[in-house]
UniProtKB/TrEMBL annotation:
It comes from the Bacteria. It comes from Salimicrobium flavidum. This is Membrane dipeptidase. The lineage of its organism: Bacteria, Bacillati, Bacillota, Bacilli, Bacillales. One of its GO terms (molecular function) is metallodipeptidase activity. Pfam families: Peptidase_M19.
Length: 349
């Protein structure tokens, strides 16, 4: 590649894998897709670091939900706000510690200027994102406190149902039209986010919830880690109508590297070719323009193709995009400029 283009990414779950006093972001981590040195070498300039509260593990065999045509996994039970708040504090603390351990190398981003400066200075940038709003109480007090702490992006649901809405279960083949959308409190959440300038992520919403957000928000519509349903007809992927709506509002879609969301055949296996990955970037570019596609890796939150291996795959994807005919200007948009534009039009400063 002619120019060293930094890649800013829409979604990772790396915070889930850091443990205070045991594993640091600056260690050479073997159990994760991302650590500082590998990310730096791959041109990974930072991204949205998700705080996601897992459901308690249940003894269930995934195999029983898979058949010859595909799969339909049941969603886990709801979790309480108290559980989610404690866990979110834990993960947010991990993010802040990455910065305090080495402020010359990593910065938690709270406004667009900080993001642009970080990209210029090649200092890694992290945005505090909450995936699934269980953390937020129904008076929205936690939203305001977490905003002051640095929260700048939130997904109303992570697939599992909560007080703000119903999410989309993991099914193949399936449309995203799987049930009810936002609740009244979900609509209120959108309003509070708009007034604070917190980005609302439609990833993991079902189709009804997506359109609820689309009609209620005054910000560009964003799906941080979702792919093209016309290529891979999985419930988590976006229909052409959704992609068109995101483009119409000046929004962006981060391409997810989860094998189950890339493969046309719906198999959950890792022998995915680079061409199959590039196809999602190309589809959105040809359909609505290169301004509306970006990275949304899902590193450390998904099973990814062997060809990517870990964060080092970021560089390989950039090279493959270049080989596919994307110009340097287009590559810069996909790599970071689209995300910066969306945040300029979403955040308060
Ligand atoms: Zn996710």
């Amino acid at each position: 590649m002619k120019k060293d283009i930094p890649v800013f990414d829409g979604h990772n779950d790396t915070l889930l894998h850091l443990q205070d006093g045991v594993t640091s972001f600056y260690d050479s981590l073997e159990h994760t897709h991302i650590d500082y040195d590998r990310a730096k070498a791959a041109g990974f300039a930072g991204g949205f670091f998700a705080a996601y509260t897992p459901s308690p593990e249940k003894d269930s065999n995934k195999g029983e939900f898979i058949n010859e045509n595909g799969y339909k996994f049941p969603l886990p039970d709801r979790i309480t706000q108290a559980e989610a708040l404690v866990f979110t504090h834990k993960l947010a603390a991990q993010l802040f510690r990455i910065e305090t351990e080495n402020p010359d190398k990593f910065r938690v981003i709270r406004n667009v200027k900080e993001l642009k400066d970080s990209l210029d200075q090649r200092k890694m940038a992290g945005i505090f994102h909450i995936e699934g709003a269980e953390t937020i109480d129904l008076s929205f007090d936690a939203l305001y406190v977490l905003y002051e702490a640095g929260l700048r992006s939130i997904g109303p649901v992570w697939s599992r149902t909560n007080d703000f809405g119903e999410g989309v279960p993991f099914c193949y083949p399936s449309t995203p039209d799987t049930g009810g959308g936002l609740t009244d409190k979900g609509f209120e959440l959108v309003q509070h986010c708009n007034s604070l300038g917190i980005m609302i992520d439609t990833t993991h919403l079902n189709e009804k919830g997506f359109w609820n957000v689309a009609h209620a928000t005054n910000a560009p519509i964003v799906a941080t880690h979702s792919n093209v349903h016309a290529i891979c007809p999985m419930s988590r992927n976006l229909t052409d109508e959704q992609i068109q709506k995101i483009a119409d509002t000046g929004g962006v879609i981060g391409i997810n590297f989860a094998v189950s969301m890339l493969r046309a055949d719906g198999k959950r296996e890792t022998d995915v070719s680079m061409e199959e990955i590039i196809a999602h970037f190309r589809y959105i570019t040809d359909f609505v323009g290169v301004e509306h596609v970006a990275f949304g890796s899902d590193f450390d939150g998904a099973k990814i193709p062997d060809v990517l291996h870990d964060v080092s795959g970021t560089k390989k994807v950039m090279e493959a995009l270049e080989q596919d005919g994307f110009s340097e200007e287009e590559l810069e948009k996909i790599a970071w400029k689209n995300w910066v534009r969306v945040l300029e039009n979403t955040w308060k400063d």
